[in-house]
Amino acid sequence: MTAPHRRPLIAGNWKMNGTLKEAADLVNALVKDLGSPSHEVIVAPPFTALTVVGELLKKSPIKLSAQDMHWENSGAFTGEVSGAMLKDAGCHAVILGHSERRRMFGDTDGVVQKKLKAALAQKLVPIVCIGETLEERESQRTFKVLETQVKGALTGFAPSDLSTVVLAYEPVWAIGTGKTATPDQAQEAHLFVRKQVAGLYGDALAQGMRILYGGSVTPENVDTLMAQPDVDGALVGGASLKPIGFLRIVNFKSPAAH
Ligand code: PEP
Predict the structure, then answer these.
(1) pLDDT tens for residues 201-212?
(2) Greatest distance between any 2 Cα atoms in the chain
(3) Torsions phi, psi of 9, nearest 5?
(4) Structural domain count of the chain
(5) CATH number of the domain residue 239 falls in
(6) CB atoms near residue 87 (< 10 Å)
(7) DSSP, residue by residue, 129-165
(8) In a domain, 103, yes or no
(9) Which of 70, 129, 153, 257 is close enough to 168 for a disulfide, judged by CB 3.0 to 4.6 Å?
(10) Does the beta carbon of 233 lie inside 6 Å of ligand 1?
């Protein structure tokens, strides 16, 4: 059960999926059946669909996020999109350091930190992803990896700079694999991450910071994950592309909801 001062957040990462029509159909289906959720809801379409989806979300509580950004505002960075451009396109949030970016596109902890600084300067809510690979877990390096990633991304700020930051614990072995961390594994990692944040910036910031779980979250497993005290929401990939399933995740049932 999430602490009452941390509003649960469910974010859908659409990854590289969707024509403009498919994006519009998906978001229209979500808006139609969402109602007034007590939890915060975010969708992250690909760059090309941001303005179309943003337009369709105008009268909805669902907020718009991008999946990545560059750390400079403008300039000779062919193929990149800046935080200033995301803000201009209507984004509220941006996902940073997703493991697919880290693994395939060279996003190191240093890169994530630069992007975080730029996102905060644009008043975008950063959703910073961290998580260990299977090999790291099996060789008992999970905590060391999480510590390095948290420190790598979050050092060099004042605590007040980081009040809007959201972390997403996404074990790489659970992303898109159908293998979800058990609620106990998720809770253990989230508590560890919160303690790392407390060590860097104090308990007040750490207790206020939302830590999402990501990795094969489905309508079937969301309730038990969300029942954990340090799991404050979910970052959802595959299951966010199906409106009925995503809405079931958004309306998860945990002891907090009773
Ligand atoms: C993700 O991409 O952030 C993710 C968690 O994907 P999936 O839900 O498909 O595992």
Answers:
(1) 999 999 999 999
(2) 53
(3) -130, 125
(4) 1
(5) 3.20.20.70
(6) 18
(7) EE---HHHHHTT-HHHHHHHHHHHHHTTS-GGGGTT-
(8) yes
(9) 129
(10) no
